Amino acid sequence: MDFSDVQFLLSVHRLKQLPPLELPEVAFAGRSNVGKSSLINTLTQRKSLVKVSGRPGKTQGLNYFRVGEQFFLVDLPGYGYAKVPKGMQNAWQSLISMYLESRATLRCVVVIIDIRHEPKQVDTQLIQWLRMKEIPVLPVYTKIDKLSGSLRQKNAKMLDAGHGIRGSERVLFSSKTRQGREELLQSLASFIYT
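Above: the chain sequence. Below: its structure as tokens.
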């Protein structure tokens, strides 16, 4: 995958704003503040392609990034405890679910989960919903640099069990050390180019 030409395209707030169905798309989803922006920046080797914020709820639309003539990277709004009005959260959820269910060029949803925490019901629900809709899902456990090797493996197994994931189906990732970047690239390529 070549990230030499990555550009922000647009922020979608209504389905009619979606770009034409021309390239494969990979969507990135996760609870607020799990490291989604940092992961995308590390993946694309850009320091600030996606703005990293300590404030939950910063991403408010489907943010489209064009990766050359290869694919679109779609940054979805964080879900969970974002301190935004309930009406806005409901509007996001409606937009996201309609996008995920109807987008013919969507190849995969990367579900980002903080490895330091026990399985969260909202993550489990999203993964199960994607599987039920037959939308390919790639779980990525982030912030692995914050745990020692043995605790990292213990937490990964706990998340696997809690979310019904096999170890071979997910990627362990650190934006700080870049560990897992190559594995994530290989996994994404298998969804985009097959």
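The chain has one domain: 6-192.
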